[in-house]
């Protein structure tokens, strides 16, 4: 059992707010802020009582009578850190959050009212954790990609380095390009009966795993011979640099790197833009301008270039993401920072929505935008479900007088 000592000079949500919570609360110390961002930490019992009345009038219809939401997409606010709630309410009031029912709910509340409502919700017991069982762990995407790649090695070579003329290497391709190409075969946008049949048997997850697996393999040139003259092909190949990069090293995920690629495949692929087997207006005219010898020489030049590694990171496992999130949001989502929200026992659908908003820019936070940008859709769902199942714990803040 942990109890926090509260200095006389500071009303730390005294009496009604934390007497009932002290036995299970986590103590945290903060220093008074020069602004009023932490003013809700010094609310009195009367403030909390008035906050309850205001919350019942303005908030309970959506967030529940005790701050525990029963509505999809509406967050729990019971037990939330008061300064965080206060800052969010102020953001809605000042128009710094997208228009929503919250905008109307706080529009006519004073700053003092926002403080009292925030203090009231912080005084409540946190919501119960979700009772849903943890989903089975997802397979490691690299291992899944490796297993799927066994069906590709007969044509594309071990680890995606082709040893068959006319068959492309799959290493050193940006995963986004690889995925787009496979979807093209799957939908028939790219014409190849063998590839279409293979792609149709793959889920989007399978294709993503394959793309990742090949992207992280050590780059190597195709183990095939080129029919053209690589030295003669250097000059015509330079006309491709605007899209495919110098030496065939593309920096655009929508445009493939050509360095180290099988030469015969490059010739066939270029011709397919001319005959319409592949649809791309930006490629049709440049491809049609190349005679057979020039095309073979340019393909030989690209085949002779050493491919470069793709800038891609191995996806983090759920435990690794949780460790990163806990750095700010506290152990298992129980924040001890007054202005960072507790996310333990929060509604999973709300956490998913917030992460999506940070990814799209609907909500602004440099730290959260950078973190969420690397999350896959599965990562978002897994993190939301994980934190919804964690036990939420209240926290007592002890204000340390500034020196």
Topology:
Blueprint: E1 26-30, H1 45-58, H2 60-63, H3 82-93, H4 101-106, H5 111-123, H6 141-149, H7 153-156, H8 175-187, H9 193-200, H10 204-215, H11 234-238, H12 241-244, H13 263-275, H14 281-288, H15 292-304, H16 318-329, H17 348-360, H18 366-372, H19 377-388, E2 395-399
Parallel strand pairs: 1-2
Helix pairs in contact: 1-5, 3-5, 6-10, 8-9, 8-10, 13-14, 13-15, 17-18, 17-19
Q: What does this entry look like structurally?
A:
- With 403 residues, the protein is mostly helical.
- It has two domains: 26-133 and 317-399, Orthogonal Bundle (Cytochrome Bc1 Complex, Chain D, domain 2); 141-304, Cytochrome c-like domain (Cytochrome Bc1 Complex, Chain D, domain 2), CATH 1.10.760.10.
- The protein has 19 helices and two strands.
- It has helices at 45-58, 60-63, 82-93, 101-106, 111-123, 141-149, 153-156, 175-187, 193-200, 204-215, 234-238, 241-244, 263-275, 281-288, 292-304, 318-329, 348-360, 366-372, 377-388; strands at residues 26-30, 395-399.
- The protein has a two-stranded parallel ribbon with strand order 1-2.
- The longest helix has 14 residues, at 45-58.
- It is elongated, with a radius of gyration of 29 Å.
- The chain starts with 25 loop residues before the first strand and ends with a strand.
